[in-house]
Fold this protein.
Amino acid sequence: MTRALLLDRFRWVDGHADLWPVFRDGAAFAEVVRALAEPFRDAGVTAVCGIESRGFLLGGAVALELGVGFAAVRKAAGLFPGEKLTRETDPDYRGFRHVLRMQRSALSDGDRVLLVDDWVETGSQALAVRDLVTEAGAELVGCAVLVDQLDPAVRSRLGRLHALLAADDLPEC
Ligand SMILES: O=P(O)(O)OC[C@H]1O[C@H](OP(=O)(O)OP(=O)(O)O)[C@H](O)[C@@H]1O
């Protein structure tokens, strides 16, 4: 049901995937958030991590659904007070390298972290978050995304990956 709902609202616009209409529809947004959280309800998750910017939107909602807090991963620009952990990514789907930042105080030893994002393609940003989580002394329990376009070799490095759609599910561009 969630898969059909996502596909119904998915659009290619000027060659770019557009998932924003999912968030504009309150019922669809709620359904997607529940579906992302579902496999992790009994996984002992203590924090949800999300990458700026769509990861903030989805990650914050999934954190509320799981009854835990949210740890933000910011990109280079933007005020972010205090001591940070930083990690440069490999080139992402556009060939961009990002410096991802997380406040050192955001996670602690023993935290069990779920990364939530809309899309994984090269996995560069998700792998950098895995490293940040590990450096913080926490454990990445898994990743929950709307669309998984990962190469299998990269997927195996991210642990438990829950995706609502695979690349093959998407309509032709
Ligand atoms: O697997 P990768 O190749 O690393 O790409 C996936 C990342 O790219 C997208 O974010 P984007 O940088 O487009 O930022 P946005 O959410 O602000 O659009 C997406 O939200 C992931 O964070």
Notes: The first strand starts at residue 11 and ends at 13. The helical segments are 2-9, 20-24, 26-37, 54-66, 124-135, 152-155. The pocket of PRP is lined by residues 51, 53-55, 92-93, 117-125 (CB under 6 Å). Residues 38 and 172 are 29 Å apart (CA to CA).
